[in-house]
Amino acid sequence: MSGVASPRREAGVALVVAAVAALGFAGTFTFDEVPPALREGLGAAEFPRLICIVILALAALLALQEKRSEAAEPVPATGWWTFAACAGFLPVMAVIGMLPAMFLFVVAVGRLWGERRIALLLASGAGLVAAIWLVFVRVFAITLPAGWLGEQLLG
Amino acid sequence: MDAFLGGMATLGDPFILLMVVAGTLLGIVVGALPGISGSTTIALLLPFTIGLSPIAALAFMGSVYCAANFGGSITAIMVNAPGDPSASATAIEGYKLAQKGQAGVALGMSAVSSAIGGIVSVVVLIFAAPLLARAAYSFGPPEYFALAIFGLSMCAAIGGESRVKNLIAAAIGVLLATVGIDLTSGIDRFSFGITELSDGIDFVPVLIGLFAVSEMLEQATLRGVPATIIAYTSAKLPSWADFRKCNRSIWIGSGIGTFIGALPALGATTAALVGYAETRRWSKHKHEFGHGSLEGVAGPEAANNAAVGGSMVPTLALGVPGSATTAIILAGLMVQGVRPGPHLFTEQPTLLYAVFASMLAANLLYLVMGMGMAKIFARISLIPPTLLWPGVFVLSVIGAYGPNQAIGDVVVMLAAGVVGFLFRRHGFSPAPLIMGLVLGRMVEETLKQSMIIFDQSVAGFAGRPIALGLLLVTAIGLFGPALLRLVRRGVPA
C-alpha cells in the first residue's frame, strides 16, 4: 500500500456525456433520406453527426481529467419532495386547474421547506395567484387550463 | 445623428419611460435577492415582453440587466450574500466595511462606481457598436461561422468547474439547436414525430427551466443560513477624499469591464473578479484589501456594470451574445422577429439608439434609487426562501405557458429544469448551453453556406483572412494553455 490515493477521474460523468452523444449520433440514422436534387454539400445529418463527434471527443478528454470538486452532497428529503411536487404539478393541474394548483404548490412547498406561519403561507399563495389572474387572465386575456374540476363546475 | 436623437427622443414616450423605470426598479429588487440573478429574471420576464413593441421590450430588458448588477451589491455589502453572482467580488471588501460601520459609504461608492462604469460602457457602446457593425458589413458566411465558433470557444472561460465541461455544454446546446426541420433539405431532425418539435426547440421554456427552475431545485437541496442585516443609516455619497482615492480603481474597473464584456460569452462576473484583482494590483493601499477596502468595492462594481454595455456591443452589432444574459436578450429579440446584426444599424437605427438611451437612463436612475432606497432594497434579501422560491416556480409555469398557451411548453420547461439541476450538480454551467442553443443555427447555416462558396473544400477558409484569423485565435485560446503546460513540463527548472 503506497498510501497515495489515485486522483478521482470524471469517468462517470464522461460516460453519460458520451452516451448522449452516441444516442444523438445513432438518431441521425433515423432521419429521412435527403432528396437527390438537394444532396449537394452538407446534408441534414452531417452537421449533427459532426457535433456528436466533437462531444464524444470532449467526453474522452473529460474522462482523463482529475475531478476538482468534492462529490455533491446527497439530495436531502426536502429536495426529493420538491422534485415530487414539481412533477406532480401537471397531473394536479389537469384535475383542479392551473390557478388552484399554483396556490396548492406555494402552500405545500412553502410548508415543506419549513415555513410554519400558515396564515402567511396562505396569504402569499392567494396574493400570488390573484396577481397572476389579474395580469394574465384580465389584462393579457390568456385562457388558463381550468382542469377537470373547473370544467365540471363551470361547464 | 438623426437616428441618435430619435432614439433619445423615445425616452419622451411615457410608456417607454415607464418600462425603463419599472425595469430599473425590478432589476435592483431581483438583483438584491440572493439566488435570483439578472439572467434568471430576464429569462422569467421574456414571455411578458413578447406582447410589447421591440423598443419597449429591449428598454425593459436592458434596464433590468443594468440595474440587477447594482442590486446584487446591496445585499453583498449588507448581508454578505451577493444577490447576483457578479457581486461576489464586492462582498469581499463591502461586507468588511459594513462590519466596521461603514455600510453607507460602501453602498454610496458602489452606486457611484456602478453608474460611472455603466455610463462609460454605454458611451463606448454608442461609438463602438456602429463601427463594429460597419466592419461587419464585409463579413460573409465564412466570417460569421468563424465568429460564432470563436464565441462558442469563449464559453470555455465562462467560469464554472472546468473548461471541458463548459465546451461540452456549449456543444450540447448546438446539438439541441439542430432539432426541427433542416432549412436546406426540409428533413425533420430529432423531432420523433412530435409536431411541436418540428419548429425547433422554443427558447422561452428552455431558458426559464435552465435558469429559474433548476435554481429552485438547487435551493431545495441547500440548508439556508438565516441572514442578518447590518444596521446603518443610509447610503452616502462618497466624500471628495474617498472619490479621489477610488478614482483610479473606477477607471480601471470601467476599462476592464467594457473590454471583457465585449468579448463573446464573458460577462459581468468575470469582469468583476478580474476588476477586483487588477484594482488590488494597482492600488497604493494594498494593505487595506481583505480588511474592508473602499477601492475593492469601487473596482469590481465599476467593472461588472461596465460589462453590461460592453456585452451589448457584439450582441447588437454582430448577433453574437456577449454574455449569458445577452444570449437571453438575443433570444427574446429573435422571438420578436428582430435579428441583431450589422443590418440593424441601417434598418432600425432608432431601435438601437433607443436601447442605448434607455440603458443610459437606467444607469442614472439606479444611482438615484440606490442612494435613496438602499435601506429598503437591503431588506428584500430577508424575504424568506420558503415564500420566494415556490413563487418563482409558479411564475416559471405561467411564463412558459403564456406565450403559446401550450401545456407542452410547461413540460419542456420542467425537463429543462431537471437537466439544469443535473448540470449544476455535476459542475456544468447552464450558460454555455444557452450560448450553444442561440448560436447553433448560425453555426450550421454559415458552415453550409461557406462550404458551398468554397466548393465543399475546407481549405477555402485559408483565403479569408478575417475568418482564418478568428479560427486561429480560437485554436490558440483552446489549445494554447495545454500546449504551454506541456512546454513548461519539458523545460527543466
UniProtKB/TrEMBL annotation, chain B:
Domain DUF112: start-end pairs: 17-434
Record carries keyword RNA-binding: no
Keyword terms of this UniProt record: Membrane, Transmembrane, Transmembrane helix
Domain of life: Bacteria
Keyword Signal: no
Transmembrane parts of this sequence: 15-36, 42-68, 105-132, 144-160, 167-187, 250-277, 316-338, 350-369, 376-400, 406-423, 466-487
Name of the protein: C4-dicarboxylate ABC transporter permease
Species lineage: Bacteria, Pseudomonadati, Pseudomonadota, Alphaproteobacteria, Acetobacterales
